[in-house]
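Supplementary Methods. Inverse-folding protocol.

Structures were first reduced to a discrete structure-token string of length 626. This string, shown here, constituted the complete conditioning input.
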């Protein structure tokens, strides 16, 4: 009985605390802010995305409900002066409301700039808008006179907000609250503010790039807004377009004309950390299955990844955007630009497109980024049918996930364009126990995991080889980047970028070797020529089969690296050549003079390539819009 009385008393105290909070001016302002931020979305939706809203009514309703969650960081950060006043127990209710209205005024001004700026930029404003405003050559008055009606509407709306201050004149803390209760309420309030600012308990705070996880790809721009984009990009690494080179000299806008009535399926397999070195080892084969596949495939012997991390892979392969910025493209201010990935291109051609990764949904922001740029169907660990298969490290081990993937491909409507990114060859190497016992170790720390993925691929191909769609499918095996090596060439030289590119066509099982230089960014343009794709697409990649004189350009730690195997050029970030050399037959480096036709062509190409890359990204022109 005593226990029930104590529990009843505790429930009454909790109810009093909740009642105190919900009847306070703080709750009035929080609820008002939620409504206000949603209203701010309407101008962008009505003016710029009316057709998308009407054609995706249910998706719009879903995005509306998600916006209650997605707006929390904006409300937490932008209204922080107001929350501090409420947390301190401010009884100056008129002052509190004036602060609230002032912040709303700032948000309306930012939204007004965003709505009027969007037609020119094709994207929402971000933190760089403050640099633009501070530019000495920028005059504010012409903008004010041009949009005088918008200025008037903003001030009238601010006045209306001020008049809607309601009759709530209570602080967070009830008058009868003890010091202990006030501290408890303050802690609850502070904790809620912290969680809201981070967007939950995720490892990384919620940012605008994550919107694609929650809403339909066509409504990402609507669900996002200028204030959220500013908050998301405030700590981004600043980028600046180089002064050297030409911004529009290279032909990156492609127009594909179908040369086939038969649309081939595509299965693009990206193996975690599969360096070309592992496949080329002769004294001890780590990859016997891949070796056997090479005998009936087209092998591109000099393929160089543009980055050294998995996060740099999706832009490079699926959009033809190599790693040249200081920051990862996915993490930069520009990842929300209007750009179409390969999945979107193939969907426009009637393909069923999909991306599979056995890691947790949200890993490295793959899902959000790929959906934002055109993918409809992303399958991660959350969609995998048996969560007991989790390897305790990164996700679902490769053998099990590839077996699941084989079943998924069999169910897809044809033609399909699908890609899978494996994970077991990433440290700490989540290999199934029975394979840990049976697979040989060495010579490297990760060798057992490489043998494991090779075995998993062998089982995958065995499972699908008799399917009716198998022979009409183009298979590609490549990697996101290289990994551990004991060979100095693969540790420090261009070998650290050297990845496989194997193209297997079951209808033409013949061995072919292409010696010209290429990158993973060339994979999709090469496939596009073989699959009957139609339409425009923007990519720095090219058809690797027909590009005999191609040059691969990537960003290293201290310079830009250009490769036209066996020739290599290092160019400083200032555009000046640093070093020119040749790789001989035994992987030695032979220094060359900074003269000659080849040097001149490689240096000029590098300058134009880097300049055009920056120009297209910084000006939101990585697309086929005129």
């Amino acid at each position: 009985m005593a226990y029930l009385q104590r529990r009843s008393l505790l429930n009454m105290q909790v109810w009093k605390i909740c009642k105190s909070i919900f009847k306070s001016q703080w709750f009035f302002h929080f609820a008002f802010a939620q409504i206000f931020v949603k209203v701010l979305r309407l101008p962008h939706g009505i003016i710029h995305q009316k057709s998308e809203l009407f054609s995706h009514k249910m998706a719009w309703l879903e995005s509306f409900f998600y916006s209650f969650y997605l707006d929390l960081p904006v409300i937490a950060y932008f209204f922080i002066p107001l929350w501090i006043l409420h947390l301190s127990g401010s009884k100056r209710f008129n002052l509190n409301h004036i602060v609230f209205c002032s912040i709303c005024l700032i948000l309306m001004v930012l939204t007004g700039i965003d709505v009027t700026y969007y037609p020119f930029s094709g994207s929402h404003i971000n933190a760089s808008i403050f640099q633009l405003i501070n530019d000495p050559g920028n005059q504010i008055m012409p903008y004010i006179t041009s949009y005088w009606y918008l200025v008037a509407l903003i001030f009238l709306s601010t006045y209306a907000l001020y008049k809607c201050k309601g009759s709530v004149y209570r602080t967070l803390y009830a008058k009868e609250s003890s010091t202990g209760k006030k501290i408890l309420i303050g802690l609850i309030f502070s904790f809620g503010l912290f969680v809201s600012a981070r967007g939950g308990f995720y490892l990384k705070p919620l940012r605008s790039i994550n919107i694609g996880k929650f809403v339909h790809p066509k409504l990402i721009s609507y669900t996002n807004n200028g204030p959220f984009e500013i908050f998301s990009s405030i700590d981004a690494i600043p980028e600046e377009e180089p002064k050297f080179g030409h911004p529009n000299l290279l032909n990156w806008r492609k127009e594909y004309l179908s040369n086939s009535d038969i649309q081939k399926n595509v299965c693009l397999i990206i193996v975690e950390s599969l360096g070309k070195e592992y496949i080329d080892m002769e004294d001890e084969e780590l990859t016997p299955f891949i070796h056997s596949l090479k005998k009936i495939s087209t092998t591109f012997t000099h393929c160089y990844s543009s980055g050294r991390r998995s996060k740099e892979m999706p832009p490079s392969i699926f959009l033809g955007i190599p790693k040249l910025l200081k920051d990862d493209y996915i993490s930069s201010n520009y990842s929300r630009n209007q750009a179409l990935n390969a999945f979107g291109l193939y969907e426009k051609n009637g393909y069923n497109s999909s991306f599979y990764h056995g890691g947790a949904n949200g890993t490295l922001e793959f899902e959000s980024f790929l959906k934002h740029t055109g993918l409809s169907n992303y399958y991660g660990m959350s969609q995998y049918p048996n969560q007991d298969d989790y390897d305790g490290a990164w996700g679902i081990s490769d053998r099990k996930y590839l077996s699941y993937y084989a079943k998924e491909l069999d169910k897809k409507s044809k033609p399909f364009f699908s890609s899978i990114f494996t994970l077991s060859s990433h440290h700490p190497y989540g290999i199934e126990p029975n394979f840990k016992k049976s697979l040989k170790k060495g010579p490297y720390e990760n060798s057992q995991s490489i043998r494991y993925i090779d075995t998993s691929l062998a089982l995958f191909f065995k499972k699908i080889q008799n399917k009716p769609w198998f022979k009409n499918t183009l298979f590609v095996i490549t990697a996101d980047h290289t990994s551990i090596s004991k060979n100095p060439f693969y540790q420090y030289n261009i070998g650290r970028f050297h990845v496989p590119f194997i193209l297997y066509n079951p209808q033409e099982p013949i061995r072919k070797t292409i010696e010209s230089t290429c990158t993973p960014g060339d994979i999709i343009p090469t496939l596009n020529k073989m699959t009957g794709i139609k339409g425009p697409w923007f990519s720095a990649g090219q058809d690797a089969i027909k590009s005999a004189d191609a040059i691969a350009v990537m960003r290293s730690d201290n310079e830009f690296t250009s490769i036209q195997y066996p020739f290599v050029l290092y160019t400083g970030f200032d555009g000046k050549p640093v070093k020119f050399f040749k790789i001989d037959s035994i992987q030695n480096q032979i220094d060359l003079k900074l003269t000659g036709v080849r040097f001149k062509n490689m240096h000029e190409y590098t300058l134009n390539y880097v300049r055009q890359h920056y120009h297209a990204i910084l000006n939101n022109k990585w697309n086929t819009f005129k």
